[in-house]
Amino acid sequence: MRQYLVAVDVGTGSARAGVFDRHGAMLSRATHPILMQRPRENHAEHDSENIWKAVCLSVRSAMADAAIDPARVAAIGFDATCSLVARGESGEQVSASTTGEDRFDTVVWLDHRAINEADFLTASRHPVLDFAGGSISPEMQIPKLMWLKKHLPQSWSRAAYFFDLADFLTWKASGSAARSNCTLTAKWNFLAHEQQGWRNDYLELAGIGDLIERAALPASTVAPGQAVGTLSAKAADELGLDTQCRVATGMIDAYAGALGALGGSLDNHVENNVALIAGTSSCLVALTPNRMHGRSLWGPYWQAVLPDHWLVEGGQSATGALLDHIVRMHAAGGEPDAALHRRIVDRVMVLRAEEGEGFASRLHVLPDFHGNRSPLADPHARGVISGLTLDTSFDSLCALYWRTAVSIALSTRHVLDAMEGFGYRTTTLHVAGGHIHNPLLMELYADATGKRVVVPQTSDAVLLGTAMTAAAAGGVYDSLTKAGAGMYPGCEERQPNGSRASVYERDYKKFLAMYRHREELDRL
User: Which of 167, 319, 415, 429 could potentially form a cystine with 314 if both were Cys, beta carbons 3.0 to 4.6 Å apart?
Assistant: First the structure.
């Protein structure tokens, strides 16, 4: 019986693989780093062959640790960041880099080189934007493709495929160029709810009217929880699996995390729950059977994750990355590894106990150091710090770190307020990702938002969500909803501390005032 699942997650800095049983227990996990180069400001690039090698090494290592016979693996699933991969007619790598190196064929999700192209699309007010929150982010694929055609015409003419990274991985695994409904609706402006998903007039407006042929884009998509095929002989050999293993359609990493976090709620008023997938950046994901638009919220996307449901997403472009930046830039900081973060967090706890509400109370931060994804939808936005002194001690770093963490939680509330303003009714915040290991952030997510916070009892909700899609694709469960219920591991809860409500309400008012003041400065 094939009852085991392999899940692969490709993030910004590494590829991870996990082996799961049908009940959602992770038997093993392995990680391997991937390369990223930053040749210019706002440019970030991967080597997709380096990514595939890291995937294969991770899967082989995880399978060895789990001691599972490949003949018992029903399916493999892939999730990845929404990075863009260019390939040629024979599958060869095609450069997406100003360096001209073919091996750097992948534009990383956080790359903002196409900010002017995104601004152009937003200004067009094309009806497609009604299903993208009214604006286009430079993190989406259409502006990146516009940039590539304009600035790297030789690469454009050589390309025969453009893939979202998750679709690239399923292509490498199965040989099928089928695309996921998850990736195309969320990042390519594909309208899955319409009979004709591609709007040719929109592509012509963007100057990439030849995209469908150039990228080998299909007219239809494959839903999450379905299979695109089985492993090819070559991929099976590289991964250490067999050719009877099914390949589940790919997922965007944040949406896989949302599935893992919300798995136990998919058939129980899922619309009252929001998943917060918080790591380098943060994504807030809501699922609802009703179509509700919201300016500055990405979506609504039809069946991007769950059948018969719309998905809407809000987000923060830099959260964990922002805390790393604060640690790295401060005179008393250094390389932001786990040990240094832990030392800072421990000291913050002591200082808060000693000084009470007065600790760092005159420091205020706007966290938009990499633009504002939601609810302002302004990639040009910049971060602000108010209340700095000449103090360069370790305690001053701790104060700034604490107030930056507060700003991240207040920004989460800002997104939730925007969602609720458009009709979304949220009672519970399901948190997954690296932030669950930061006690300051976990306390703040409850206290600063006033929401009940739920943390799934899994070490990796993203891999779990991807394993759920593999379980449905591999026939271990007969639907994604049943896979979610059957594999959800239970959760721990945190209720907001009511005694802190007035403190964070005052902080939130100051937070919103800073936005107004920044806007005033920008207008002068």
Answer: 415
* Element at 66 (helix H, strand E): helix 48-66
Q: What are phi and psi of 192, to 5 degrees?
A: -70, -20
Q: What is the pTM of this model?
A: 0.91
Does an H or E element contain 449, and which?
none
Q: Whole-angstrom Cα distance, residue 284 to residue 460?
A: 17
Condensed to tens digits (0 to 9), the pLDDT of residues 38-72 reads 999 999 999 999 999 999 999 999 999 999 999 99
Q: How far apart are CA 238 and CA 7, in angstroms?
A: 15
| Dihedral of the alpha carbons of 76, 80, 85, 89, in degrees to the nearest 10 | 10
Contacts of 477 (CB under 8 A, 6+ apart): 22, 471, 483, 486, 487
| Cα Rg, the chain, nearest whole Å | 22
| Per-residue tokens: 399 | 């104060």
93 φ, ψ (degrees, to nearest 5): -70, 140
Amino acid 293: pLDDT? 81
Contact 76, 18 (CB under 8 A): no
Amino acid at 21: D
Q: Which residues contact 327 (CB under 8 A, 6 or more apart)?
A: 333, 334, 336, 340, 341, 344, 397, 401
Find where tokens 């930053």 sit.
Answer: 38
| Closest among 69, 210, 82 to 153, alpha carbons compared | 210
- Burial (CB < 10 A; 0-12, 13-18, 19+), residue 99, is middle
- The DSSP output letter for 76 is E
Q: How far is CA 375 from CA 300, 317, 421, 522, in A?
A: 15, 11, 11, 18
pLDDT in tens, 446-480: 999 999 999 999 989 999 999 999 999 999 999 99
Task: Report the alpha-carbon distance of residue 25 to residue 32 in Å, rounded.
Answer: 21
How many Cα atoms sit within 13 Å of 167 on the Cβ side?
A: 30
pLDDT on residue 283? 92
